[in-house]
Amino acid sequence: MEAKIIQFVVRDNNNFFSLELAKALLHFVEFDFTYFWEKCIEAGRLAKKSGRLPPTNVSNAKNIIRGIHPYVEAMIGDDFADIVTDCIIEYICHSERIGLEELWVRCISPKNLYEEAIFRRISQYKTGAAMNQWSNLVKLQEYARNKISFIYDCDEEKVPLEYEILHTRKEYFDLAVAMAANELGIDGRKMPSVRVGSSALMPNATFMNARVSKAIYRRFADVLEMAGDMSVPPSRDCVKVKDQLAMDSYAFVRGMKRPAEMDMKFALEALKDNSDEVFMPDSLKAVIDLEFDLMMKYNIVLRKCESCGRYFVAKDEAFLCDKVNSSGVTCRKQYDEMKAAIEAAAAAVRAEEEAQRRAAEAEEAAARAVSEPPVVKKGMNVPPELEKRGQKIYNALYKRVGKAMDENEFREWSRYLSDMKRNIKIGEATIEQLEDFLDYSDRLCAQVKTASKNKTHVKTSVENYTFETVNDKGDPIISGQVKERIEAFVPISFGDDMPQEEIAEKKSEPVKVVAADEVEVKPFKPETFDSLFDAFMADHGRNYDEEEAAEKTPQKPVEIKAPQWKRMTREEAYGLKEDDE
Amino acid sequence: MKFINESAAINGMADYIIKSGVCLFNSIKYIYSLAENEFYNVNIKDVLKIMLNNMPDTDCIKSLGLRIDDYTCREMQSEEYNRVLPLIVFSLAVRIPVLKNVKCGEDTLSDDQLYRIYTAVIEKGAENYNEIISETFLETKYLVRKGKKVPAFTADWYKSYIYAKVPALAEITNKNMFLMGFVDMLFAMFYSAMEDGLAQKLMEYADETAAEAEEEN
Q1: Model confidence, pTM
Q2: Which of A98, A193, A341, A373 has the smallest number of CB atoms closer than 10 Å to its CB?
Q3: pLDDT 10s digits, A190-224
Q4: Which residues of B fall within a CB distance of 8 Å from A123?
Q5: Residues 106 to 145 of B: which have CB under 8 A from any A CB?
Q6: Residue B116 sits in which domain range?
């Protein structure tokens, strides 16, 4: 919201003064008198010793108090010129518990300038020529505070108030004061008031616009000098003859024509900056009331800050001000930070609760786990009897490898057994499964033994165990129990990382049983490699193009030569020729 | 009466009487100006208090906002009225023998000393213009010597002079009627206060040690 500034004038002063609405009022109600009070008391003590008010202290104190309000600043040389003395008088009366009359009589024959100042000031109070401006300021500050509170304070719920409500409150407040004055017999016309008009209609208009006034006077000097003195005694009440006085004056300029172009330009230059609306309050209370009225007019609303309790100009619907408080940040920012902190704290509490809940659940699960058998696979050693049994079958089958049993089939069986043992140790298989497998191996061994006696292979015997029947296409039909076993064995034998398609392919392959005479048992001969590269390629590069590899692989060893350092000349280093020098 | 410096004492007493006359003269003007604009603003009791407490100085009355300028006392801006001041001083001078009643121990002013004070006052400008004041120095001296009561100090001669010589003030106006009313009370109160002040002044000049020695003898 743009700041609204008004212009005002004061009596016996030809200058214009500015006042920013709301800001001046808020500054006034928040002004701290402590420092001014201390300065005055100090000046009073010094004056009591020296016999005169120290000018420096008085000047400093006045400089402090003039900042309270633009009106006080405008009248600091007039109404508020003796405010320091006022403060001292108030202090003496308060501290010595005496009245003004007693103090006045005490100083009626002043012995020094200090007493004379006090006597003169109290005499002014007595004659109505002045009032104690210090106590007036204090009372007016309270008045302004109460009026703000009366008009702008919210009752219960923090809801921005409508204009009608605010306006009614203000009118009610002003009316209460007027009613009290009326009941006390105080004439309403003697109450503080504000005169409004353009600068040319102000009582001091002639002096405020002196240059143009002089130019006008030159035009009518002859006529005006001929006229007699029409001044009215100050004591005369001219309320009912004001028009007459004005028309008597107008009679002398009645035939006035517009001035020449040059004079008009001169007047334009001099008067163009004059405000259309100039206020002339006759007292500080009048200015304060004027501020309230204009704030209503321009819809400037005050609110009480929820945080610091100070009033501020409402910019939105918030009840927090943008004034920096004792914590060094604005109330609004402080509130935001506090809100964020509270939310963060709430989130932390929620997170902690969640963590506690999870921990409780985990504990509960752990408790359940303790009561129930462990789901987690736990490795165990193969029982020695099963180890012996497996070894026995291994030996029996090994004797008949190449006779009644194919070597590959034996290897496969052997790998099954060793994988089974390993899986039992890591918890991937159970003892029961091993026993089942050994049972099967016993039967296989028996078949192999039988075949060995009959000098035949045990193809059929394996088929009998593994595949109970063959379907129409010749593929084996696997019974449910056996199928489960195979499915359980196959991943073990082929490895978990083997793709399912490959596993399925392997499964679909019929178990091949070779006759004993067909089997050639060869001693184990480890694979040998000429180089590390060949060994690597044997595992990983089955499809590796050896020719391509041969091209890429350097055939000849790289000859490493020792570096030969050569000192460069400056010209060579900077790329200069000898001519470039 | 013994003085530390007799001539200085006589001159000082004469000065005090003249200053008191000026004080009364100005006080009349101040109170008269009150009727111009400040009739309901200034309490006349305050004016009298200030005047009586600061005699013969009247400057403090300004504190009440009263001014004795050409406008507010315009009716008093005349040669005739200016003669009131020497008349006031003369009216006070003829009452100098009353100081015979002031004692410093057992010491009092001699007739010669009283006369010298009177002469000094007259020399400083006191004048009985047109014989307005009926009282005389000798008459007062006689009354004092006989122990008779001296007549009250009234404003009768003042009013007579105004009616006779100052028509601007003799005119029937609110201000003038106010003037004629308050001067009676003012003259009486003033003289009472001045008498005390004069006696106090006399005691300041008196040589108390000499008086005490004389008493012992």
Answers
A1: 0.64
A2: A373
A3: 899 999 988 888 888 888 888 899 989 988 888 88
A4: 46, 50, 63-65
A5: none
A6: 6-216
